[in-house]
Write a structure and sequence with these properties.
The chain is mainly α. The protein has 2 domains: 75 residues, no CATH class; 224 residues, no CATH class. Helices cover 60% and strands 10% of the residues. Strand 5 and strand 6 form a beta hairpin. It starts with a helix and ends in a 17-residue tail after the last helix.
């Protein structure tokens, strides 16, 4: 028998077995089901969707635990707890291991005070762990000032160390020879790209002063975005507090770098009638704050949306429980993951580009001398 005939027979047998299995799953229950059983099945579907929603929320939130793997059936978590450090306004500083919370299932008693971990936040409570809610459904219990190194903080510290050793190695290699060696050959084109395509065209001749910041923010955001795509459950750039900090640093640098022409264009726009100057002044002042706000929201929204889409597609595999939908959604998840690799770089590039653009607007000189067109922004 020819080889291609054997392949066709095996394929036909596989299709028959799959069809029989699918038919058996569809008709394994009696046709005349009572309403009580149908209702129970419906509740099971709802429970599954709620579990998926909670899993996505847990993935997006910060945590006092660094989990590598969780077993949904046994409830076991594989990882390690992080230190919990907070300031209770009534009892001072407290420090202990997050393992005492047992992933929010147990209370911690210190000096007669009880503390509960609820939605990754620490609340003061009573001996029974009561959580009260306000009119908006938010926990109303008193919260101590949490200073704990969460998994996002640990991730940022690790990325900072990685960047330090990367650029330390690159700087050391330049002292020995003109061309870097090893991993420096990968870093050098990226550094030149940030310098020639982002800093110079947007800032101008004074670009060197801001290269340290631009390189730091570009590589820091990019590496954090890549770490967020790993199965470790770290979503640093999807935390609006982190993106707010990035945008705040850019805002401070822009304002302290602004020259007299920058401030004059904000508070007393030259070349326009006085009534228009009065109208434009509050608009320009508002623009000072909307620019960093746009930086904050753009990075936060894009990275959060990417995580939600990926986790939702994986959740649909569990919801449909189909041999057709499973591979289809899994393949689509892989495709979106590849797109997210591009988005991780693109968001770091956009944040750095806009930061350089805002700095360039603040340091631009307005004079009547011939302009050096080598720093012009290219027309798109």
């Amino acid at each position: 028998m020819k080889k291609d005939h054997i392949v066709k027979i095996l394929l036909a047998v596989f299709l028959v077995l799959v069809s029989v299995n699918s038919y058996a799953q569809e008709h394994s229950e009696p046709l005349n089901q009572d309403e009580e059983h149908a209702e129970a099945k419906g509740h099971g579907a709802v429970d599954t969707k709620e579990e998926i929603k909670e899993y996505i929320d847990h993935h997006l939130q910060d945590s006092h635990y660094f989990n590598f793997l969780s077993d949904g059936e046994t409830g076991e978590h594989y990882g390690f707890p992080l230190p919990v450090v907070f300031y209770d306004f009534d009892n001072g500083f407290k420090a202990f291991s997050a393992s005492k919370f047992h992933h929010g299932e147990e209370l911690v008693e210190i000096d007669g005070q009880h503390y509960a971990l609820y939605n990754s936040r620490i609340f003061k409570t009573d001996a029974t762990g009561t959580i009260t809610y306000d009119e908006d459904g938010m926990p109303a219990n008193e919260r101590p000032l949490d200073l704990s190194p969460t998994k996002s903080v640990i991730a940022m510290l690790v990325v900072s160390l990685i960047m330090f050793f990367m650029f330390k190695s690159l700087a050391t290699s330049y002292k020995k020879k003109d061309l870097p060696g090893g991993f420096g050959r990968v870093l050098e084109p990226l550094v030149i790209y940030v310098r020639d395509d982002i800093a110079k065209p947007n800032i101008g001749p004074n670009y060197r002063k801001y290269m340290g910041f631009l390189l730091t923010v570009f590589f820091f955001i990019w590496i954090l975005n890549l770490v967020g795509l790993t199965p470790l459950g770290i979503n640093v750039t999807g935390n609006i507090a982190v993106t707010f900090s990035f945008a705040l640093i850019t805002f401070i640098i822009v304002q302290f770098s602004g020259n007299k022409h920058y401030w004059k264009h904000i508070f007393w726009m030259p070349g326009v009638p006085v009534p228009m100057k009065i109208v434009l002044m509050p608009i320009e002042v508002l623009g000072m704050f909307t620019k960093p706000f746009a930086l904050m929201i753009r990075l936060f929204a894009n990275m959060t949306a990417g995580h939600v889409v990926l986790m939702s597609l994986l959740g649909l595999i569990v919801v449909f429980e189909s041999w057709i939908a499973g591979p289809a959604f899994f393949g689509f998840t892989l495709f979106i993951s590849v797109i997210e690799l591009l988005v991780a770089f693109l968001q770091a590039y956009i944040f750095t580009l806009l930061s350089a653009l805002y700095i360039g607007m603040a340091v631009e000189e307005h004079d009547h001398h011939p302009k050096d067109h080598s720093y012009d922004i290219p027309v798109i």
